[in-house]
Write a structure and sequence with these properties.
Helix content of chain B: 10-25%
Shape of chain B: globular
Catalytic activity (chain B): ATP + H2O + polyamine-[polyamine-binding protein]Side 1 = ADP + phosphate + polyamineSide 2 + [polyamine-binding protein]Side 1
Protein name (chain B): Spermidine/putrescine import ATP-binding protein PotA
CATH superfamily of the largest domain in chain B: P-loop containing nucleotide triphosphate hydrolases
InterPro entries (chain B): AAA+_ATPase (IPR003593), ABC_SmlMolc_Importer (IPR050093), ABC_transporter-like_ATP-bd (IPR003439), ABC_transporter-like_CS (IPR017871), Mo/tungstate-bd_C_term_dom (IPR008995), P-loop_NTPase (IPR027417), PotA-like (IPR005893), Transp-assoc_OB_typ2 (IPR013611)
Oligomer: heterotrimer
CATH topology of chain C: MetI-like fold
Subunit structure (chain B): The complex is composed of two ATP-binding proteins (PotA), two transmembrane proteins (PotB and PotC) and a solute-binding protein (PotD).
Chains: A mainly alpha, B alpha+beta, C mainly alpha
Function (chain B): Part of the ABC transporter complex PotABCD involved in spermidine/putrescine import. Responsible for energy coupling to the transport system.
Number of strands of chain B: 20
Radius of gyration of chain C: 23 Å
Shape of chain C: globular
Order of helices and strands of chain B: EEEHEEEHHHEHEHEEHHEEEEEEEEEE
CATH topology of the largest domain in chain B: Rossmann fold
Largest interface: A-C, 84 and 84 residues
Number of strands of chain C: 0
CATH architecture of the largest domain in chain B: 3-Layer(aba) Sandwich
Number of helices of chain B: 8
Distance between the termini of chain C: 40 Å
Structural class of chain C: mainly alpha
Strand content of chain B: 35-45%
Largest sheet of chain C: none
Distance between the termini of chain B: 33 Å
CATH superfamily of chain C: MetI-like
Strand order of the largest sheet of chain B: 6-7-8-3-9-10
Helix content of chain C: over 70%
Amino acid sequence: MKPTDFRIWGLAPAWVIMALTLVVPIGIVILVSFASRGAYGGFDWGFSPASYAQILFEEDWDGNLAFTPQYLSIIGRTLWLAGLTTAICAALALPAAYTIAQAGGRAKAVLIYLVTLPFWVSMIVRVYAWIIILGNDGVLEKTLRSLGLVTDIDSLLFTNGAMLTGLVYSYIPLMILPVFASIEKLDPALIEASHDLYGSRFTTARRVILPLAMPGLMAGAILVFVPCLGAVLEPILLGGGKAMLMGNLIQTQFGGGRNWPFGAAIAVVLMVLVMIFLMVNALRARPEVPHD
Amino acid sequence: MDRKKAVEVVNVAKSFGTFQALKGVSFDIYDNEFFTMLGPSGCGKTTLLRMIAGFESPTSGTIRLHGKDILSLPPHKRRVNTVFQSYALFPHMTLEQNISFGLENLGWEKERRRARTAQMLEMVHMSQFARRRPAQLSGGQRQRIALARALAPEPEVLLLDEPLSALDLKLRQAMRDELRALQRATGITFVFVTHDQEEALDMSDRICVLGHGEIQHLGTPNEIYEDPENRFVADFIGETNFFEVDVLAVNGPQATIRTPMGQTLTTFHKGAQVGSKATLSLRPEKIGMEDQADGPAQSGELMEGRITGRNYMGGYTHYTVDVAGVELRVSRRNAVSHSASFDPGRTVRLGFRHDSARVLAR
Amino acid sequence: MTDVKRYPFARSFTALFFLYLYLPIGVVIFFSFNENRLVSVWTGFSLKWYDSALANRALMDAVKISLTVASIATVLATSVALMAALVIVRGRDVKFRRLSETVVNLPLLLPEIVLAVAVLILFSQLGLQNGMAKLIIAHTAFCIPFAFLPIRARLQGMEPDFEEAAQDLYATPWTTFRRVTFPLIAPGVFAGAMLAFVISMDDFITSNMLNSGGSTTLPVYIFGLIKQGTTPELNAISTLIVLGSLILATTALILTFRSEKRA
C-alpha cells in the first residue's frame, strides 16, 4: 500500500461528508436567504434582498417602509445573553477549576468526572429541571414561601433571567474542562516564585494564574459563546417564546412561520456574527509555541 | 582492500529548508566493524543513521547496503535494525512478544521464532523476565531488551542511536563492555551514534567525527586522539592546549614552528604552510610537571611557569600554569595516595616531548 | 507553614458549585417519586410514574430510534474520524493538513441551528424523504469532530518511535497499524466513540428540525411532552435518562482506565 494512496483516501471520507452535509448546504442557505418566500411555505429561487430587508423594515399598508426594531432587539438580546453567559461561566469556572487542580491524583480524577457528568445528561432534561424549579408554584417559589421570605412572586420563568440561568447551567461544563486543562499545566513552582518575590495571593492570582489560564479561558469562551448565540431550547422552554433569541427565531421560520428565506437570512446573520467573533479571537490570540 | 563493505554512503547531502545539515559526505563502513559516528548535537550524525534505517531521505546522494542501493526501499524492507534512543519497546506486548515481533513479520515459523527468542533473552541474561512487560523493567534492562529485539532478526547491520545516554554512569560503563563483546561475538556490523567521546574511543574500531555538516576525521580512536586531522577534532576530543604559532619550515610530514613562548620545535603536522600561521595542539597529560615519576625526557622542551589554578579530580589534578604570559593546562596523575599537591602561586618546571605536540592548520 | 497555593473560601465555593451542578437534577429525580400529579408538592412516595413511563409506547419507540441512530452514527463517525486523524497527525508531507483539520472540526465552529437549517434545506432539495436516513447522515456529520478530538489527542501523545520501531522490524504499514498503533490509541478511539454516542443521543436542535413522522428521537419526544405541561411522568423519564447517562459515563471511564493500564 503506497503511502500516497492512504493519505488521500484516509481523508476523503471526512472531506466528502463535511462537504456534502455542511459546506454545500451552507452555500445553499446563503442562496436561499436571497430567495423569495413561496406561496405554500418553502421558497422560490430568485434573487431578492427582501428577507434581509425584513430584518430592519416592514411594509405598512401604504407600501412605505417603516423601521422595525423587533428583530434588531432579538439580535441584541442574543448577543447580550451569550456574552453574559460566557462571562458568568468564566467567573464560576476559574475558582472551581483551580481548586480541583489542587486536589491529589485520585480525588482530582473523581472531581473532574463529577464536573463532566451533568454534561452527559441530555440538555433537555437539564433545562426541564429549571422549568420545575423556576415555574409558577415551582420548587423555588415553594421553598422561598415556606421559609417565609416571600408571599407570592410572579413566575420567574419566561424571563431573560430564566434563560440566562438555563444557559449558564447548560454550558458551564464546556468552560470548566479547557480552563482546568490550562491550570493543570501550570507549574506550582511559579506560584511559589511569585510569593518568593513578595507577591500577595491576590497579585499572584492576577498576574500569574489568570494570564496562564487565559488560553483555557479563551477556548472555553468559544465553546460557550458560539452555541449560546444559536441556543434554541432555553429561549423556547425558559423564555416562553415571548423573549425570543436568534435560535428560536430561526426555528419558527422553518416550523409554523414557514418563511424559509427569512429564516435563512437570520441564519446567515448568525453565521457572520460567529465568524466575526472567531476572527477577533484568532487575532487576539498569542502565537503558539512551535512544536518540534 | 579485501574487506567487504557493509554500508557505502556516497555523497549524501541533507538540507532542511535553507539549512544544510549535511554537505555531501562519503564514507564506507566495513563488515564486522564497530563503527561510530561522533559529533556535537546537530552535526547530522543521527540524521545519517536514520537515513540508513529509512526514516529520512537524503536530499541528494546514495546509500548502499552490501552493494545494493537501498534508498528506494521503505524501512520495513531494509535488512537493518535499529536500537532507538528511547528504546521504543512496545508497552502492550511482553518481552517475548517484543523480540519475536520482527521475526513474525519476516515469516519465520513458530519453532524457529521460539528458539531464536529464547536465545536472545539468554544472550542478554533476561530469560526469567520473558513474560514481563517493558513498564516493569529498569532502564538498563529495557536497553538490553531493545538490543535483543534488534539483533533477533539477524540484520546485516545494527544501528544504535545513542542507546546509552539514558543510563547512569556505572551502568553506562558496564554496557560499553557488553556492547563491544556482543559485537565481537556476533560479528554483525554495529553503526553507533553518540556525542560522548569517551564511549566512542572505548568501543569503536573506527570513528567518524562529524562537524558543520562534514566529515572532520575518519580513523581509529588512537589516530583521532593522537593525530587529529584539524583543530575541530583536536578540540572536540579530549582536552588540549592551543597556541598560535609561526610556521618556519615544512619537511614532509614534519614542520618546524616557533611558539609564542619563544621556543622552536619540530613535530608532525597536518596542513601547515611555510610563512603562515598555524595552531599547535598539546594535550595536558603530555606535559610533565617536576617531581613526577615519568617526567619529560631530557630531550624534551623545558619551561618554567607559575601555577595560577588547580582542580582536584580524584585520579588526576588539573593545573593552569602561566608560562611567559601564556596559560597552559597541565594534567598530573595522582600516582600516590595523598600526592603532594602544588599550590597556586608556586613556580614549577614543565616539560614535554616535541613529538607529543601536533601542528594543525588554522 | 502556609500553603501559598491555597486560596481562602475556594473550597467552600467549589463545594457550593458542585451543589449547584447537581441540585436541579436532584430535584427532578426527587419529584419523580412523588405520589401526586404536581411536580413541586411532595405528598408521598410512589413508583407509579415509572410504570406509566415504561408502558408508554411512543416513548419506547423514540428510545429505539435514538439508540439506532446513535449506534450507526457512532460507528460511522468514529471510523471516519480515525482515518482522518491518522492522516492528519502521522501523514508525511500531507497537503492541506491544517485545512483538513478545520474541515473535520467544522461542525464545532458554527451554532447547531445553522447546520440544522443547512441540512434541512439540503435534504428537501435532494428530495430525501426517509426520516432515519436523514437523521443518520446529519448525526454522523456533527459527531465526527467529537470522535476526532480524543483520537487526535491520543495520537499526538504517542511517540512516533513505536511506529518507526515496528517498521524497522519489517512490519508493513497495515501490520504496524493493526499491531502497534491501534492497540496504543485504543483508549482514545473508545473515548471518541463514547463521546459521539452521547452527543448523538442528546441531540435536539438538528433532530427537531428534521423531525417527521417516523423519526422522532427521544429528546424531541420529551420536548413535545414538556410543551404539553409538566407531569411527574416526565420526571420519571428524565430520571431514567439520568440513570442511563450515569451508567454510560461510568462504563466509559472504567474501560478507559482499564485499557490505559494494559497499554
